[in-house]
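Title: Prediction job returns without error message
Component: structure pipeline
Severity: low
Priority: P3
Assignee: unassigned

Description:
Job completed but the reporter wants confirmation the result is attached to the right record. Sequence as submitted:
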Amino acid sequence: MRAAPMLALAIMVLAGCTAPTPEPVPPKAAAAALPDMDGIPQPEVDAAGARQWWEGFVRATPYRMSQSPTNVQAANMIESELKAIGFEARTIYYAAAPFGVASCAEASGQGIRTVVGIKEGTEEPDHVIGWVAHYDSVATTIYAAYDDGSGVAVAMELARTLAAVPTKKTLMAIFFDAEELGLVASNCFVQQAMRDASVQFDLVIGHDMTGINCPGHEWKMYQFTGENFAAELVPIEEALFADERFFTPEERACIEVIDVADRNSDERRFKEAGVPVLRMAGGRKAADYPEYHKPGDTVEFVYEFAGSPENYEAGLGLTVVASYWNVHVFDRLPRLEG
């Protein structure tokens, strides 16, 4: 009998992180065709609501360095929002050691946090499609609006958009602490997850520094693929974005698929463990954003750099739409095997 996902999650976070991270496996032959996508509703994305939620979130939680009071406040806000949306949510705590490193032993009510929201699949609940963002900040910024309040907003709006849409596989929205300290929380989470044979991650999407992109800005929305599965993922992504059922010509021109995941955020830990990953970002490199890890990474600067609040809203909306269709593609595809 298969373990329910929340039980399996509890098992995996209690298991400890002593297992070595598996080596990525070489890709197999490309799969160019999309699965049957009939019957999937068009996404009802509230881009304006996502932008307004983002603005409220980052203004309410400045200085979100790991374990700071506002970092804890941010985690609590995220868990509450996930529950309000309809996901089953909980916060996992890892015991903190000096220099921000986690012992990966689950702590009780304090430490380095990971907030997880789960919506169980109807047919294959032991197969998981996840998406991740980090809510902590570096000490050199204040509001961390783009890095990564923006990814938190996209990940939350994706959860809202999918909350009432049935999926065969289990959906898992994961919000990590301590990314800025070296992908600390995601390191523990992934190593523990790999120990639990009853749960398999079929795909993980990373959202970090999102929304300053076309159609509201000259930057493309870059769709990175993990190189360990690039031969499979790139044709799937290109077929998806070329399909007029899902994207307008303007939207298709906004997206560029890249066959390497060379941006360094929490999805990297899943890639290292042999899981297929995608990463979405506005800006080819983090340093392309002028206020990267600087005090000027504020709501006001994001609006200025994007051209207007509406421009930023349009970029956020496209990122959620692209994530939504990717969730459904991989919900209907068999698990990619290396």
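Comment from assignee: result matches the submitted record. The beta strands are 88-96, 102-106, 112-119, 124-134, 169-176, 200-207, 221-225, 255-258, 277-282.
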